[in-house]
Amino acid sequence: MENADIQNLYNLPQRRGSEPITVLGIESTAHTLGVGVVSYPPFKVLVDARFKYNPIKGGLHPRLVTEFMVSSVDKALKEVFSEISDPSAIDGIAVALGPGIGPQLRVGITLARALSLSLRKPLIPVNHAVAHIEIGRLECKLQDPLIVYISGGNTQLIVYKEGKYRVVGETLDIALGNLLDTFARETGISPPYIVNGKHAIDICAEKGSFIKGFPYTVKGQDISYSGLLTASLSHLKNSPGSLYDVCYTLREIAFTELLEATERALSSTGKESLLMVGGVAANDYLHNKYKALSEERGIKYCRVSKKYAGDNGVMIAWTGLLGLAHGVTIPVEAAVARQRWRITEVDIPWIY
Ligand code: AMP
Ligand code: MG
User: Fold this and answer.
1) Could you check whether the bond before residue 62 is cis, i.e. omega within 30 degrees of 0?
2) By CB distance 3.0 to 4.6 Å, which of 61, 173, 221, 304 could disulfide with 226?
């Protein structure tokens, strides 16, 4: 991507000389310890170290995930410092303070505090949801899209307005990724949740067809998934032979609810472009539905690359770099976990 494009997208201050800014970013909000290093200008990913916790059975047990993260820290740092031979080249340490799960967050935050103190570099607070958006905006070069942010813990429709991101629609209960993962786990088709880039539900749905009568809940621009999850599990309990059909139906209803809320949000906000980000954005079936919707409405549509859809340190580093360029830093003692940090609370100084 050209520097001029990025400059336009992000209102980045012109820097004297051509010295790039380099930021290290740490992600540990849920299942992945990610440490990324990016620099700009020009935009470069110098390090993208990732250690993802994959449960053998069950969900994300915080103690087991944090043990895994702690035991991955030395490997992550080895990757960083084999690439960055001079640590003084790093201008700032960014860390996702939330939203996320407390014990996991504290692993990343402790590492960030230690690096900030030992390298004597400023600490930059990053909101995880903002980071998913900024890496998508960067890749897609979209100035002012309606954002569909879908991941394990979040399902939100978001727009930028007057210095902040605003939530214009969201799930009233569980997130889309959580719906897919919980159903897959409860029925024993997962783990693993993802096989060859496909969710277990997609593979199961390929042999299924639609069952009528499952709950479909859209309220204005908000949606609900927990009734759908309960209905799917109880249907399966009563007719154990219907797994493929239930997979198909659950996926169809979940995605269609999201599409309907998205269409409503497009109409009410008047946005002319659509950006899909977050772990579930890697889903090709949903991607094709959004492509068709956008063609029909004549709007631009783009999704984050699969590489940066799921949690990673690069998106935290990039958002941290934007923060640092606009003076957003905090003292180390202020770096504390913010489990429920809403995106609407975050100042965004890098959009006009
Ligand atoms: P994140 O928390 O942003 O890393 O996103 C993780 C979520 O994305 C989990 O719920 C995964 O099951 C989900 N996910 C990852 N790949 C896919 C895919 N191809 N289709 C649907 N969901 C996916
Ligand atoms: Mg995420």
Assistant:
1) no
2) 173
Closest CA to 100 of 275, 336, 307, 324: 336
Give pLDDT tens digits for 192-207: 999 999 999 999 999 9
All structural domains of the chain, each given as residue ranges with its CATH number in brackets, are 3-133+309-345 (3.30.420.40), 146-270 (3.30.420.40)
Residue 94: closest CA among 268, 278, 312, 308: 312
**172 Cβ contact list (under 8 Å, min separation 6):** 219, 222, 223, 224
Q: Output the CA torsion 45→47→53→54 (10° steps).
A: 60
Cα-to-chain-centroid distance, residue 263: 21
**CA trace torsion 67, 71, 72, 78 (10° rounding):** 160
**Orientation of helix 243-269 relative to helix 284-297, angle to 10°:** 40
CB 68 within 8 A of CB 108: no
pLDDT at 221 over 60: yes
Q: Is the CB of 254 under 6 A from ligand 1?
A: no
> Mean pLDDT over residues 333-349, rounded?
98
Ligand 1 neighbour 96 (Cβ under 6 A): no
pLDDT the model gives residue 15 = 60
Reduce the DSSP state of residue 209 to 3 states and report it.
coil
Q: Ligand 2 mean position to 28 CA, how many Å?
A: 10
User: Are the beta carbons of 102 and 339 closer than 8 angstroms?
Assistant: yes
| Ligand 1 binding pocket includes 279 (Cβ within 6 Å) | yes
What does the block give as tokens for 13?
A: 């201050």
Q: Which of 60, 48, 44, 47 is nearest to 311 (CA)?
A: 48
pLDDT tens profile 108-119? 999 999 999 999
Looking at the chain, list the stretches that DSSP marks H as alpha helix, in order from N- to C-terminal side: 3-10, 62-83, 102-119, 128-140, 176-186, 200-205, 226-238, 243-269, 284-297, 313-325
Tokens representing 136 are: 């998508």
- Pair 94, 65: CB distance under 8 Å: no
Ligand 1 centroid distance, CA of 348 (Å): 26
